[in-house]
Write a structure and sequence with these properties.
Layout (H helix, E strand, L loop, with lengths): L1 H14 L9 H9 L1 H4 E3 L6 E3 L1 H9 L6 H6 L1 H4 L4 H11 L5 H9 L2 H11 L13 H22 L14 H21 L5 H10 L2 H9 L1 H14 L3 H9 L3 H11 L4 H8 L12 H16 L15 H6 L4 H8 L2 H7 L6
Antiparallel strand pairs: 1-2
Helix pairs in contact: 7-8, 7-10, 8-10, 9-10, 10-12, 11-12, 11-18, 12-17, 13-14, 13-16, 14-15, 16-17, 17-18
The structure holds fe (ii) ion (FE2) (2 copies).
One fe (ii) ion binds next to loops.
């Protein structure tokens, strides 16, 4: 019993994030156990009386899962098929070529069919029908094919009960694809050499939320309610209530899936791009801007960035002007509508 209480208190301490100031021991106990309810001064006596019922309920309360436990079991929620993992490794290997990628993808006829269906959708607007995988690879490149394979594998993970009042997992997928197409549009418009990567990170940036939804559903509902009630930053509320945020879990997934550091860091810092390593700050800022625009436009699940603002530091890091941001902001609805083939 006593061990369980100590573990709970220890967990409250270990949960304190580097961004959230650590509360003191008294504050923690008051916040989490209701110290005044637990102890009361006996009238006419200096002694404290313990509310035994509450004390016992604290001792026996289940301890919510911590970050390490969730990361250790992350494959239960979000494991990519072997063929998709091999596609990622081949596409990201500078020594591999289109023929090697063709060989890997060809092993999965169902995936080939899905890729060809997406390639021939209105999203790409190609003038002629693409009937073969090698033609699709030559048109979209290895990064483009990798993105389609990941989209095909990941979209099926967005299932299950609601995330919180008014939002289901499919709303989160709609949001993810919205950020992907808007981030890609920025990269194209600005002629950045990360067009495919911008789409990939946009698609995966909030995947950590899916893990929280599976592992800590009650806590996710509380986080959503708290961030809406107080109009506060979503990740700050996550850190306060569960000790980590969806960026941490997204980082764990991207690392597990062997993505390059640029992708991992853009996911890790998409709500705090100023904290990203300098070489990856541009991509993290780009995703932060795209995310903010999509949330402000109510595209799917929008709670993670609806209270977030685009600042000068983000614009300078990309770099992008406020005029271009407004130009793309005015196109968000059209871009998202064009991406509807990814929703199926
Ligand atoms: Fe996010
Ligand atoms: Fe987001």
């Amino acid at each position: 019993m006593l061990m369980s209480f100590s573990a709970s208190v220890l967990r409250f301490f270990t949960r304190a994030s580097k961004r959230t100031p650590r509360p003191g021991f008294h504050e923690l106990l008051t916040q989490h156990t209701g110290l005044s309810e637990l102890f009361r001064v006996v009238p006419g006596n200096a002694a404290l009386e313990v509310n035994r019922e509450l004390f016992m309920s604290i001792l026996t309360a289940p301890v919510p899962l911590g970050l390490k436990q969730i990361v250790d079991s992350i494959d239960d929620v979000a494991a990519l098929p072997d063929v998709t993992m091999r596609i990622i490794q081949t596409a990201d290997d500078p020594n591999s070529n289109a023929f090697q990628l063709l060989k890997v993808v060809s092993h999965d006829p169902a995936l080939v069919a899905k890729i060809l269906k997406l390639v021939n959708s209105s999203f790409y607007g190609l003038p002629n029908k693409i009937a073969s995988l090698d033609r699709a690879i030559s048109l979209l490149g290895m990064g483009g094919i990798r993105n389609l394979a990941i989209a095909s594998s990941v979209s099926g993970m967005f299932r299950g009960g609601e995330l919180c009042a008014g939002y289901g997992p499919r709303d989160l997928w709609t949001h993810s694809i919205a950020v992907a197409v808007v981030a890609r549009e920025f990269a194209r418009k600005l002629k950045l050499p990360i067009v495919d990567e911008a789409f990939l990170v946009g698609m995966l940036h909030d995947l950590g939320l899916l893990v929280i939804h599976q592992k800590l559903p009650k806590e996710l509902r509380a986080i959503c309610e708290e961030s809406q009630r107080q109009e506060r930053g979503f990740s700050e509320v996550e850190r306060e209530l569960i000790g980590f945020d969806h960026q941490d879990l997204g980082t764990a997934l991207a690392t597990r899936w062997k993505f390059p550091a640029s992708v991992v860091n853009a996911i890790a810092f998409h709500h705090h791009p100023a904290d990203a390593p300098e070489e990856h700050r541009s991509a993290a800022s780009l995703i932060c801007i795209a995310d903010t625009l999509c949330c402000h436009a109510d595209e799917g699940f929008n709670l993670t960035a609806c209270n977030q603002q685009i600042d000068e530091q983000m614009l300078a890091a990309v770099p992008v002007t406020a005029e271009v941001v407004v130009e793309i902001q005015n196109k968000v609805k059209d871009l998202v509508a064009l991406a509807c083939p990814f929703s199926g």
